[in-house]
Each structure stands twice: as C-alpha cells, then as structure tokens.
Design goal:
The structure holds 2 protein chains of 2 kinds.
Chain A (H helix, E strand, L loop, with lengths): L1 E5 H11 L4 E4 L6 H8 L5 E4 L3 H13 L4 E6 H6 L1 H9 L6 E7 L13 H7 L3 E2 L4 H18 L3 E6 H4 L1 E6 L17 H4 L3 H24 L4 E3 L2 E8 L1 H10 L3 E5 L2 E3 L3 H9 L3 E5 L5 H7 L19 H10 L32 H10 L18 E4 L24 H12 L4 E7 H17 L5 E6 L28 H8 L3 E6 L3 H13 L4 E6 L13 E3 L18 E4 L2 E4 L11 H5 L5 E3 H7 L3
Parallel strand pairs in A: 2-3, 2-4, 4-5, 5-7, 6-7, 10-11, 10-13, 14-15, 15-16, 16-18, 17-18
Antiparallel strand pairs in A: 1-8, 6-12, 9-11, 19-22, 20-21
Helix pairs in contact in A: 1-2, 1-7, 3-5, 15-19, 16-17
Chain B lengths: L2 E9 L4 H14 L3 E7 L8 E9 L12 E6 L2 H7 L3 E10 L6 H4 L8 H9 L5 E4 L1 H7 L6 H10 L6 H11 L2 H23 L1
Parallel strand pairs in B: 1-4, 4-5, 5-6
Antiparallel strand pairs in B: 1-3, 2-3
Classes of the chains: A alpha/beta, B alpha/beta.
C-alpha cells in the first residue's frame, strides 16, 4: 500500500506495526501528531501525560513490564523528561522503549533552538535520524528491535521538516502484533538504582555502547552511494535531502544511525574521497565526533549553526569556499520590498483577550490614545508569562507580558523577582494545561515561601496552542474517553492558597475587580480566568457591529487586538464573518460611547 | 513532466493546508513522487501560511528553492507579494483578488500595498499574473470556504493531471455534505481561468 504521510504519521504507523502497546506524550509542536495518530488505534493504550517527565516514567513502567512503549515529545520536552530519560538509559529494559523527539531548527514554534542529538551522547543511547516519511516508518521497526537487542532506550530524532513534511510511504504488510503478556520479574540489580547496583549498570552501559558501535557498521541505513570521488558528503536527516539537490554528482555517506557512529565505515569512506564535507543542521555534532576519530572534515566553518538549512543556504555556503562555481545565471535576488508583517494573533472571541486588556490598561501598558506606551518601565506591574497561545499577549497592542522562559516558569520567575526586592506587584500568567504540566510545584513553592505574588491561571479548558489536546483538567482522555477531571480550584486551595477567585473570562467588570484586588493585596492570590477557547466555543450567534453615528473613533476597541475589529481609512468596523458574537462581547463592554451592539439592533435604530 | 514546484500562500484559516494536501494526493494518484511541507506560524489563525508542494519523478528536498517555483497560488493579495520571490522567471502567479489587511494596517502602523504595487512586485519575476475573483465566486456559490478549492481549480489548468483524478481526490478529502459544492467550485475555478484569462 502507498500513502502520502507526514513524518509524524509515519512514525506512529511504524510504532503501531512494531507492536507498541503503551504510548505517552505531552503535546508539543512539532511532535504532537505522533500520539494523536496512535491514539486512534483502540487496541493500544495512549495518554496525554501531565508532562514529559511523567510520560517517560509511564513508558519506562511499561518497558519494565515487558510491553513495548513509545514516548513522543518536542526538543524542550526532552529537557523536562531528562531525569527519567537518563534513568531509562541506566535501568534494565525488559521490552522495547523508543523516545521519538522532534527538534525545531528555525524555531517555528519553540522558546529556543537546541540540538537534541547531544542527548544521545549524554545518555549513551542509540539514535536514529530518518530523512523522510518512508524512513520514519521503517526506522521505527528497527528502533524497537535495537532497544530490545541491546537493552537500551532508542532515541528517534526528527526535525520540523521531517515531522511536518509529507512524503510517499510504502507500507509493509501489517506485521502480526507481538503477543506479549505483561509480567514483571523482580530483580533489584536491574530495576533498583541504588549506588551499589547503578555502578554495575554503568559498566554494562559502556559495553552496550561498544556493541552498538559495531552494529552501526552494518546498519543498512548507513549507506554509501558513490559518485565523483572529488567530493564526499556525510550527512543525515533532512539535510541529506537538501545536499542531494545541491551536489547531485558527489559521493554520499548518508547516516541513518547517528550515534554511536560507524568508525570503520567513516574511515573507509574518507580514504576514498579527496575532500569531505559534513552537512548538518544546528551544531557540528557529526563533524566534531568524526573529527575526534582523526578524520579531516569541514562543515560548520561556513555552514550556519543557527536556523534551518535549505538548498539556498547550502549553495551559498558552498560558493563561499569555491565548492560551487560563482554561477551563471546569477542567483535571483530577493525582492527588496517592505510589506506589512502578518504575525499570529489571539483569535476573535479568545478568552485571553479580556484579561490581557485589563492587565494592559490597569497596568498602564497601553492607552487608547495616540501615545502608546512603548516600554513597561512606568507600569505598576511586572507580568511574568508562560508557554502557550497567551504568549501572544506580549505583542502590541496588548504589551502585557514581560518574561516568557519555559513551561511553568512564570510562577518561579515572579517569586524570584519578589524575593530579589522588586517593589512592584508581580503577576504570573499561566495556562491551565501549562499549570498542570509544571505550574503546580511552583505554586507549592510560592505558598511555602510566603510569596505575595498573584497567579492568573487562564483556564480555557484545553491545550490550545498545539491543536486542542485534553489535559487532566478537562477529564477527557487522549482516546476520547470520559475520565476523572482534576478540579483546578480545589487543587489550588488544597495547596494552601486562601485568596482564590474564579472569574468569567468575558466579564470585563469581574476581570477589572480581580486585577484591582491583586494590585493592592499583599497576600498570595490566585485568579482563575475561565472561558472556553474560541475555536471550541459554539458558533452562529449574531455578530456585533459599530454604530457609526455614536462612534467617535477613540480607538479603544482597537487596543484589544481583536482580528475582527478593523479600520478602513478613518472608519472602524467589525468584520461580521470573524466576530464571535454572544460568546465574547468584550468590545461592547469596553466601548465608552456604547457604540457597539448587535448588528440587527443598530440597523433597527437607524432613521429610515 | 520533469518537475512541478507549487507554492500555496495565504492567511491562516483560508484552507491552505487542505488545498496543498489535495494537490499532493492528486499527484500521487497520477503516479508522481510528491513531497510537501507546510510553514505555519505560532498560532493557528491569522498568521501568514505557506505550503510547498513538489511533484516529479523523484523529489528530494521538501522545500522549494527560491526562484524555482513553477506556480504560486496566493489566496490573498499581500501574501502574493510577500512570497512572489519564490517564482521562477516566467512562472505563473494565480492571485485571489482579495485583501485581508493585517493588524498593523488596521492600527495605522503600516500601509497595505495597492494593486499596482503588488503587480509590479510580481512583475519582477513574471508577466504571467492572473488575478482571480476567488472570494467573490466562493461567496456566490454560497460558501466562502470553497475559496481554496476554487483556486485549486484555476491552478489545475496548468498541471498535467486529468480533471477526473482531481475530482476523485477532492471527493476523498471532503466530508459528503460539502463534496458537491466543492466539486462545483473546482469546475468554476477551472472555467474562470480558461475563459477569463486564457481566452
């Protein structure tokens, strides 16, 4: 069967055909669709774990019980899971365990640009890097086999362009699923990592690595294809695809397994070509490891270490060192025109808009006059932010976020500023899914250390940014089953916060009162701003409109940054096709001249 | 056909990914190798979205090289100008004659380019520029969301794949309740390109 699959869909299908029975993940671009695809199979267990650390631990448990398991996460997710990941490398493996990690070179949707290939070396585990969906599918079968054969977790590393590109996949006859019964064999030396046993394991890990290096020599996806011997290219992943187009005549050593490296294969390749170029995205991971074998290669001296590669970048770099001729025809110039940017925005009807507008106005961040406050220096607030759609609150016109570091950081960051002596009111803004992920421990810490900060939990009942996945607060499983929901308010009170308010995300008066209370309170407080994500909210109610007779073009409504509110020349109007109607009404509540109302009512009021 | 590189550009929510998925599936049905890559911004809606579709005997890179695209299908005028530099000299630009001003224009911090400016930007690459009233036609059909399939119909005129293969692929991709209207949109888009622009 031939299918057009994304890398993520192919990884999921490969894992399914390899007999995976327990799949765990926390959503994160560009890895999310791996678990989404797996969750559609009813004969396996798939969960959205609370965070990546928990996901890894659940998968390890399954592996201890003799059942094949898969963890999928994005590059920074592996940071969260790094503790159990290192433990998984140390503990014995009683069934295949594969970690599918999607890096994000170019930072399409992340907070940093890190090269997770280093994790393979750190944890001393094998790493496979597919270069298209066909390999993503096939490598999964190998990844589980390698894991079981060598008693190790296998790292399957992709990037955005592998995970999110679609290419043609020949699907094998569906393999017979492994008929395995879960069983646990009591063995403290294998599963209890007290120092006395962990020391024994370390020697085994070193032995394992040596055996894996031997295996890499004959791994069938470490392939040499001979072309001209003048230039040899060593590459992996999507970089291989770009390199093939730039150097169609060269000899290639394409590595499907990039850790540990096949030393003899590399030496042999090096001996038969005049010059070697390593083409890889981000860090010189292959380059440095190959150089350490005494092989002379170049690459990162002229190929950028930042951002994604593409054909144009590799051509330009190759021209700069004379590997490609200064071409005719000249490469076309980018057209030098200044066009308005189109950054992503909070949606019309977004439950985050009202609270950010309130923080922005009460926090003196933006004013409905021409003199927009460009900096937050004079603001009585410092607003620490977190990871999610709501990070868009940092953009104008809202200007209502001052830090955004990593999952859950808002609470610790705010407390740290308070303890450092910042005299302003500190407000941490965090989403419901992010709070469950890693905000809870920060809140426990704030209670324990008697912080006076305010934590605003934006409870939109979903993990919106990554495409609306459920989480412990929603009470729906990854496979769509009703399960037990964790009550956010009870959780927060249980931790020991007594000043807890739950407010309606679309009630501007409630929002203003809650933020005012926070501004003058010296007690730790939590405000849960509850409102359903606009994408999931019921549609079809009547849109709002602006009464042009009443409107004096003060522009306050434009400060919401709502995509439905637009201006053509001097006239402000609401795009009826975009307006969320009854579900929102924020603009109607803030208009000082009551010029915004139901479209039908405004039209009915018009004199004939 | 040696190769066909198609860039689909527009604004989040216009159905760009679905359109490029259908192009990919259709080319696969017609026995070609296909790769396709979507570039989305951070959020789902409102941002600039592009999708690269590459069709040929064997395709390596999922991304189109700048200045090599055979066809640009732009669902919005500003996005046509923004991504025009991907076109090869003499390539084909199919532009929905419709403006969606970004927020910076609404708040008065930037200026939306006029039609002459957009045309002159595209003319740096090609004279084969086709403005299509996609949004107007889709509205007349009774569902503005058929814009993507209408644009696909217009673009299909330039691709060596039979109409039936296109229509089968569209039918497979869409739920039964919107199949008919989209097939009509596809045919209208094809007709519009043929009659109004190619004579």
């Amino acid at each position: 069967m031939i299918k057009l699959l994304s890398g993520n869909e192919a990884l999921a299908l490969g894992a399914y055909h390899a007999g995976v029975k327990v799949a765990t993940a926390y959503p994160g671009t560009p890895s999310t669709e791996i678990l989404e695809s797996l969750a559609r199979h009813e004969d396996i267990y798939a969960e959205w774990s609370t965070n990546e650390k928990v996901a890894m631990e659940v998968a390890m448990g399954a592996a201890c019980a003799g059942i094949r398991s898969l963890v999928s996460l994005k590059q920074v997710g592996l940071n969260v899971a790094s503790d159990p990941f290192m433990a998984a490398s140390t503990m014995a493996v009683n069934a295949g365990i594969v970690i599918a990690c999607a890096d994000d070179p170019g930072i399409h949707s992340s907070q940093n640009e890190q090269d997770n290939r280093h994790y393979a070396k750190l944890a001393k585990v094998p790493m496979l890097e597919p270069s298209d969906s066909q390999e993503a599918y096939e490598f999964m079968l190998y990844a589980f086999d390698i894991s079981e054969k060598f008693g190790t977790p296998t790292l399957m590393l992709t990037t955005t362009r592998i995970s999110h590109s679609k290419s043609v996949v020949k699907v094998h006859q569906k393999q017979a699923p492994l008929a395995r019964q879960a069983s646990f064999h009591y063995d403290v030396e294998k599963y209890v990592m007290l120092p006395i046993y962990a020391r024994l394991r370390h020697s085994l890990i070193e032995e394992r690595l040596t055996k894996l290096a031997t295996y890499a020599e004959t791994f069938s996806f470490n392939q040499v294809s001979w072309g001209e011997r003048r230039l040899g290219i060593i590459t992996s992943g999507v970089a291989y695809q770009y390199a093939r187009e730039v150097f169609p005549q060269a000899s290639f050593l394409k590595l499907g397994m990039t850790y540990p490296l096949p030393k003899n294969l590399l030496l042999n390749f090096a001996a038969q070509v005049d010059r070697i170029l390593v083409i890889e995205e981000l860090d010189p991971f292959l380059q440095e490891n190959i150089q350490a074998m005494g092989i002379k290669v170049t690459g990162k001296e002229f190929i950028p270490r930042t951002g994604e590669l593409n054909i144009d970048i590799i051509e330009k770099a190759s021209r700069s060192i004379g590997l490609l001729p200064e071409v005719s025809p000249q490469p076309l110039k980018d057209m030098p025109v200044k066009l308005p940017q189109r950054p992503p925005l909070l949606c019309p009807g977004c439950p985050h808009t009202g609270i950010f507008f309130t923080l922005s106005t009460l926090g003196k961040r933006s004013r409905p006059t021409k003199s927009l406050v460009k900096t937050a220096k004079e603001s009585p607030l410092v607003i620490t932010g977190d990871i999610g759609c709501y990070a868009l609150g940092a953009y104008p016109p809202l200007n209502a976020m001052d830090t955004c570091a990593c999952m859950g950081a808002s609470i610790g960051n705010a407390l740290g500023m308070e303890k450092a002596g910042i005299a302003k009111k500190l407000i941490a803004v965090i989403g419901d899914s992010t709070f469950m992920h890693s905000g809870i421990t920060g809140l426990v810490n704030a209670v324990y250390s008697e912080g006076q900060i305010t934590i605003v939990i934006l409870d939109n009942r979903t993990t919106a940014m990554t495409g609306h996945q459920d989480h412990p607060g929603t009470g729906i499983s990854a496979q769509g089953k009703k399960t037990r929901a964790v009550d956010l308010e009870q959780l927060v009170r249980g931790i020991g916060v007594s000043d807890v308010r739950v407010v309606d995300a679309f009630d501007m008066q409630q929002l203003r009162n809650a933020v005012r209370n926070a501004l003058y309170s010296t007690e730790l407080s939590v405000v849960i701003v509850r409102g359903v994500c606009a994408v999931l909210a019921p549609k079809g109610s009547e849109p709002r409109a602006i009464d042009t007779e009443k409107c004096n073009r003060c522009g306050i409504c434009l400060q919401l940054g709502c995509p439905a509110i637009q201006r053509e020349k001097e006239q402000i109007y609401i795009d009826a096709a975009l307006c969320a109607g009854d579900a929102c009404t924020i603009c109607q509540q803030i208009c000082p001249r009551q010029a915004i109302d139901l479209k039908s009512r405004i039209e009915a009021m018009k004199p004939l | 056909m040696k190769k066909l590189d198609i860039l689909v550009a527009g604004v989040g929510g216009q159905g760009i990914i679905l359109a490029s998925d259908i192009i990919g599936e259709t080319a696969l049905s017609a026995q070609y190798d296909v790769k396709k890559a979507d570039t989305l911004g951070m959020a789902q809606r409102g941002g600039s979205v592009i999708s690269h579709v590459r069709i040929g005997q064997q395709v390596h890179s999922p991304l189109i090289k700048k200045g090599e695209a055979d066809i640009l299908i732009a669902f919005e005028k500003l996005e046509a100008a923004r991504w025009g530099y991907y076109l090869q000299p003499g390539g084909i630009a199919i532009v929905n004659n419709h403006a969606l001003p970004p927020s910076s224009v609404n708040t008065g911090n930037a200026q939306y380019p006029n039609d002459q400016e957009i045309t002159s930007i595209l003319k740096q690459r090609t004279d084969r520029i086709y403005f299509i009233d996609g949004t107007r036609h889709a509205r007349e059909l009774g569902n503005v969301r058929t814009l993507n399939i209408f644009m696909l119909g217009s673009a299909s005129v330039f691709m060596p794949i039979e109409t039936q293969v296109w229509e089968d692929s569209i039918s497979q991709h869409l739920s039964p309740n919107i199949r008919r209207i989209n097939i009509v949109a596809f045919r209208k888009g094809r007709e519009e390109m043929r009659s109004a622009h190619l004579g």
